[in-house]
Design a protein that fits this description.
- The chain is mainly β.
- The chain contains 2 helices and 14 strands, in the order ααββββββββββββββ.
- Strand 5 and strand 6 form a beta hairpin.
Length: 249
């Protein structure tokens, strides 16, 4: 069995094995990120997170950009008050094997939490080394409603300055504690585009199932599997997997 398929199958087995013993509940943030449980986050003295991981395919906003990749990310948060935050991230993605895709980037996001709602705006810059894709800056804004600490619904709109196009998505997240050291999360979503790399209308339906085990209060391991059913493109049905290893300071 190819290594890529073996890793997907392993992650899928781990995720299903944990979700079979409990219900599932949800939290926020985009598809390629994950967070520590809120009570663990509050105990962190600085709030900086370093993440390294592997993905069998690099899927970004419904499009496959590369095959197997390894990536590194450094992120953190500055709190202006109990409800106002500035979040920042830096990352590097590199395709393994015969591929030559690589990406470096950063993002800044200002977020306000008002009662059960998160409101945010931000900027993302992606420096891409590829024969087909160009580097770009993205402006985004979104809102997320939290029914409770386990379930949330969000909507986000992104403007891509390189192609003068729009990408929007609606997503759900559901989290479920397995025990005091681990939890399962499920993400489901639908995206639509306008003049986005020549496409208009419904873009993809996506999902992700992940299991996070907190080895300590500052170290976590998260295998995951995901799908993307695309309306456009050659690879219309995508299954991918991977794992993250996170250290918080």
């Amino acid at each position: 069995m190819p290594m890529k398929h073996y890793i997907i199958a392993l992650c899928y087995t781990l995720a299903l094995a944990t979700s079979a013993t409990a219900e599932i509940e949800l939290e926020v943030e985009p598809r390629v990120e994950f967070e520590l449980e809120p009570e663990l986050k509050q105990e962190l003295p600085i709030g900086i997170e370093a993440v390294t991981g592997y993905r069998s395919d690099y899927i970004y906003k419904g499009s496959k950009l590369a095959g197997e990749v390894v990536d590194f990310q450094l992120s953190g948060e500055l709190a202006y008050s109990d409800y106002q935050f500035l979040r920042y991230s830096l990352w590097y993605v590199n395709e393994t094997g015969d591929g030559d895709f690589s990406e470096t980037g950063f993002s800044l996001k200002y977020l306000e939490q008002i009662e059960q709602f998160d409101y945010y705006v931000g900027l993302k810059y992606r420096n891409i080394s590829d024969d087909i894709l160009d580097s770009t800056a993205e402006l985004f804004a979104g809102i997320r409603w939290h029914k409770n600490e386990f379930f949330s619904v969000g909507a986000e709109v992104t403007y891509d300055t390189e192609v003068d196009g729009w990408h929007s998505e609606l997503s759900l997240r559901h989290l479920r504690d397995i025990n005091k050291d681990s939890f399962v999360s499920i993400d489901l979503g639908l995206s639509a585009v306008h003049n986005y790399y020549g496409e208009d209308g419904v873009y993809d339906v996506f999902s992700r199932l992940s299991y996070t085990y907190n080895i300590t209060k500052t170290v976590s391991f998260s295998p995951f599997v995901g799908t993307s059913f695309q309306h456009y493109g050659a690879d219309r049905e995508l299954l991918y997997g991977g794992a993250w290893f996170e250290v918080s300071f």
